[in-house]
Design goal:
- By secondary structure, the chain is largely without helices or strands.
- It has no helix or strand.
C-alpha cells in the first residue's frame, strides 16, 4: 500500500535577498492590501 504525504502549509519562503516570496494567491476581499508583481518582460529571441 502506498503512503500518501500531505502538503503542510507553512511560512512563505524567503528569496535570496531575505524578502518574502510574493508568488501566492490572494483572495479578492484582501486584494487591495497586497501590491501587484512587476510585469515580466521577455528579452528578444527568448521563448515564452
Amino acid at each position: 500500500m502506498e503512503q500518501i504525504e500531505l502538503i503542510k502549509p507553512g511560512p512563505k519562503p524567503k528569496k535570496e535577498d531575505g524578502s518574502d516570496d510574493q508568488r501566492r494567491r490572494v483572495d479578492p476581499p484582501t486584494a487591495p492590501k497586497h501590491p501587484g508583481l512587476k510585469p515580466h518582460i521577455h528579452k528578444p529571441g527568448e521563448k515564452r
